[in-house]
Amino acid sequence: MDLQILDHRLRVTSISKNGLVNYTHPLIKLIFLRNRTRCKFFSLTETPENYTVVLDEEGFKELAPSEHLQVESSIWLPLNVASNGNASSSSQAVGVTKIAKSVIAPLAQQHVSVFMLSTYQTDFILVREKDLSVVISTLNEEFNIFKEVEGEYVPVGCQDFTNGLLKNGKEVVQPTVHPVLIPLNQFCVMSLDPDTLPSIATTLIDVLFYSNSPKEESESSTGQDLECIKFFSFSLIDGYVSLVMDTEAQRQFPADLLFTSSSGELWRMVRIGGQPLGFDECGIVAQISQPLADGDISAYYISTFSFDHALVPE
Amino acid sequence: MDLQILDHRLRVTSISKNGLVNYTHPLIKLIFLRNRTRCKFFSLTETPENYTVVLDEEGFKELAPSEHLQVESSIWLPLNVASNGNASSSSQAVGVTKIAKSVIAPLAQQHVSVFMLSTYQTDFILVREKDLSVVISTLNEEFNIFKEVEGEYVPVGCQDFTNGLLKNGKEVVQPTVHPVLIPLNQFCVMSLDPDTLPSIATTLIDVLFYSNSPKEESESSTGQDLECIKFFSFSLIDGYVSLVMDTEAQRQFPADLLFTSSSGELWRMVRIGGQPLGFDECGIVAQISQPLADGDISAYYISTFSFDHALVPE
């Protein structure tokens, strides 16, 4: 299999709930006005705590520093597994399950923190730029590793990176067991022709930026169930749109524009962490994805600034 | 003819050019998300100096006070002339010309400041609430005056207001002569089915909120001609959309959604004032509209926070 190190240098940031109004201007530009920005990697995920924004340096410079913006200090690089023809995997599962044993588990063993971002199209594994040599050393047995350079994929010679191997030692650390929460909402993972993004602009703007303000002409909405979770994720990466939303949000969009995988499957969320997880603990994705891989169960996985979220079939 | 005092209590405000980013969130809500606001009267006009926002009290409470927001201290009421069947006017002219002699001139004579807001649908004459008794006393000979109360038009008895008549005296003040500027752009006055507003959302957002930031993938645009003026006006009043833009901005919108009057006429602008005009001087609209009425020349008239703008046929 091929592992691609994509040509994006990413920042992982968080905007506070009540600070969002101050970032509406740059965020709308990054989402809808492609001819006004060079940003090619943008992801925005609303959770009950905050808005996690992952974006490349071109996008990051649009976000003015303020008390409402938290920025993780590292540069993160997205990795992507390309299942080329001769892949030996017989798994039919999609999402993070496919890469649990080949990528997630070995990186966890090497104590490399990963930030996962599953989308409709693929699963991005974000690693810190400073961990790249360890990552390459760890994965080069299983993968042909390529680095994207100006749109071309250039093979990465592992000899350049052997000094990184096992940098972190191999002692087995007993992983922390985090509490999980399983909210009642059902989620769908959807996409959209990027050319039709303008058609859903007002709905998407409404859901992303105004869903916490009251509706004036409410149709006696019952409001969010207490046992449901607020979770909405939008990403626009290299021209591809991906949306993760619950069925209640989905009803607000025109049914003919968004598409889901042929199965039209609904997903339930497993939210990991009773306390914010931070960025330094390793092995959390592995803890979750390993048993799913053993059972060949598809799963999406979305890390956010505070918590991790796995989506598994209903 | 009938004169209607509409049931809106308006504020006239100005947002500084570089303060707009702080108001993107409430403005987008007021323009596009009708089910999230009770605002029924909203107008936003960009000029080279600032953004003039005229809106009712429901809309005004969305605008958080800041150094970037200037607010004229009065409450303004919109008047509207309804040309009912038995109108004796033989004029074919549209816009402010129709009301120059019957409304604008008499009010100027009574030293009543007016703030004009022409739209595709009609011409709103805004007067200060505290001037209302003078307005009614002045106009009740020429008009049947009605006050809109919860959607119904209730006749206004002039006896309630006679004490206001001639409050300001009748001495003739020599009007100040203001310099005028005639930019080269050609303007069109357009409308749109409000249900199709979402279809032009991204274009409208781009033009309103981002036209001052550079385009990254510019098609070697020559930029705004120095002798052209930046002027764009959007209003959404009682469900009716009106847009005034120059032909350069018009090209960015899909041609099949916006419509103009049957003549498809283009307009040139006469901008009044070398210095900001303020709100207390009277007779400016009269100075301009009187000769246009004499010549039976159609004209739109849009007041902004700093200057007045007449649009006359090319």
Automatic annotation (TrEMBL), chains A, B:
GO terms for biological process: negative regulation of TORC1 signaling. Transmembrane segments: none annotated. Residues 9-69 form the CASTOR1 N-terminal domain. Residues 90-141, 263-314 form the CASTOR ACT domain. One of its GO terms (molecular function) is arginine binding. Keywords: Cytoplasm, Phosphoprotein, Ubl conjugation. PANTHER family: CHROMOSOME 1, WHOLE GENOME SHOTGUN SEQUENCE, CYTOSOLIC ARGININE SENSOR FOR MTORC1 SUBUNIT 1. Functions as an intracellular arginine sensor within the amino acid-sensing branch of the TORC1 signaling pathway. As a homodimer or a heterodimer with CASTOR2, binds and inhibits the GATOR subcomplex GATOR2 and thereby mTORC1. Binding of arginine to CASTOR1 allosterically disrupts the interaction of CASTOR1-containing dimers with GATOR2 which can in turn activate mTORC1 and the TORC1 signaling pathway. Forms homodimers and heterodimers with CASTOR2. Interacts with the GATOR2 complex which is composed of MIOS, SEC13, SEH1L, WDR24 and WDR59; the interaction is negatively regulated by arginine. Interacts with TM4SF5; the interaction is positively regulated by leucine and is negatively regulated by arginine. This is Cytosolic arginine sensor for mTORC1 subunit 1.
